[in-house]
Amino acid sequence: MDTQMQTAVQPRRWRQARRWTTGLKRTGLAALLACAFAGAHAAPGVFSGDVVKIGILNDQSGLYADLAGLGSVEAAKMAIEEMGGTVAGKKIELVSGNHQNKADVGAVIARGWFDKDGVDMIADFSNSSVAFSVQGLAAERGKIAMIAAASSDFTGKSCTATSAQWVYNSYTNGYGLAKVLTEQGYNTWFLLTVDYAFGHAFASDMKAAIKAAGGTVVGEARHPLNASDMSSFLLQAQASKAKIIGLASAGADMTTAIKQAGEFGVTTNQALAAPAVFLTDIHGMGLKAAQGLRFITAFYWDRNERTREWAKRFYQRRKAMPTMTQAGVYSSVLHYLKAVKAANTDNAAEVMKKMRELPVDDMFAQNGHLREDGQMVHDMFLVEVKKPSESKAPWDYYKVLSTIPGDKIFKPLAQSDCPLVKK
What we know:
The chain is an alpha/beta fold. Helices cover 44% and strands 17% of the residues. The strands form four sheets. Strands 2-3-1-4-5-6 form a six-stranded mixed beta sheet, with helices on both faces. A four-stranded parallel beta sheet has the order 8-7-9-10, with helices on both faces. Helix 8 (197-212) links the parallel strand 7 and strand 8. Helix 2 (11-27) packs parallel to helix 6 (128-141), helix 4 packs parallel to helix 14 and helix 5 runs parallel beside helix 6 (128-141). It is globular.
């Protein structure tokens, strides 16, 4: 779960990463790099180091370890095994690293992988500050970054010719969630917002969507990061009589609010919605506390036979069902390898070209496609957490309420501020 919490937890590192990326844009270097990559055509059959080497870089010991971590590494292994361990006659190698949710640590690992170890592509990240630092580095080195982190800027003002965002973003899960629910009749909202950049950004997107869909925000309360007592804020939300309470928060703040809302009886008459929720959050809270929560997800393991078959194999290896990040890492690695096979080279420009040409068709996404701004567009799902009485087995947590087509949930390309997009 990305949440961009590093703006509060590690503000100096986050700002350094963003300044570095912004500096590339300001100097025009990013545009020059894009032009260079666009014209850098490798001869078919040319592979750096005579192998295809993939890195999984994420949090393996902290707050995102369960939703990504070693589970993402295992998902990448499954994609490699599906290709038979080789592509275009070359061996596929996998390395992994723990960035500890520190942008500088992630950049050091990625630089070593690119410059010394011959890594061609790095996937996951699950943390925007780390992903920003590596996204720019990958563009500079002519390597590929496959991002499973939330900021919409990865495919906006910070987009590069060699990066892709695969799972979800702050637009789909903030603006998209509020728009869908308002259109379904939840037209009065109370926002409970964590009081720093992440919460403000999501609250702003949600307000814009609610207004555009004809709804009303009847009130908002802001709480500090890592608040242990949400009672006063929840009582304000309850008194507002809004049909739905939007939790513009994530992690411990979100789970605390949900648990206490149940304890105070708030959820008896009001629904809850949150922009950034993962299967592991629900597993940790339990259905009694989380029941009725609505949110948008990119993946649910029990959606069809294809997802169930893959998830059961994943469970045999990890003893847990996959989150949307872990499923997305599998998909991104598999699509990358299919593109390498089609291009018959690991040259970044040629592989990115094939990734945009080939449809994304696997258990994670059907008829998905990679746009010129680096956004992989795919269907997403509005879900509701089941009541304990509705769950038939462990990990049977979601009811899929509706499927939202990719072209309805992702920001339209015409609204993109990515410098690579032709206007």
